[in-house]
Amino acid sequence: MLELMTITVSVPDQLARQAEAEGLSVETYVERILEQNARVESADGAQERRSKAVREMAEFASQHHLTLGEGVRIRDLLHEGTGALAASN
């Protein structure tokens, strides 16, 4: 559920000038900056979760002496998955 809140801040003059240069109100300009930062942080978090999952799977496989079959390497599958992700973006 999305909750909205009102926050009052003092805006540095430089930020106000940047908003004016973009033809935006300070409020809209700050909202855009916050949205961009949230998307970047979200993407960084997703990448870290994927990396952690891969590390945990590799550790599990190593501890339990699992194999993928003759001639199949995890490295190859990871590169294949990376290509598939890049192609879908």
Protein model, in words:
Helices cover 70% and strands 0% of the residues. It is mainly alpha-helical and 89 residues long. It has one domain (26-88). Helix 1 (13-21) crosses helix 2. The longest helix is centred in the middle third of the chain and has 38 residues, at 26-63. It is elongated and about 65 Å long. The model is unreliable at 84-89 (pLDDT under 50).
Which characteristics define this entry?
89 residues; disordered C terminus; mainly alpha; elongated
- Low-pLDDT stretches: 84-89
Order of helices and strands: HHH
**Outline type:** elongated
What is the CA-CA span between the terminal residues? Answer: 27 Å
What is the C-alpha radius of gyration, as a whole number of Å?
22 Å
How many domains, in number, for the residues? 1
Largest sheet, if any?
none
* Class by alpha and beta content: mainly alpha
Portion in helices: 55-70%
Mean pLDDT: 77
> How many alpha or pi helices?
3
Number-wise, the strands total 0
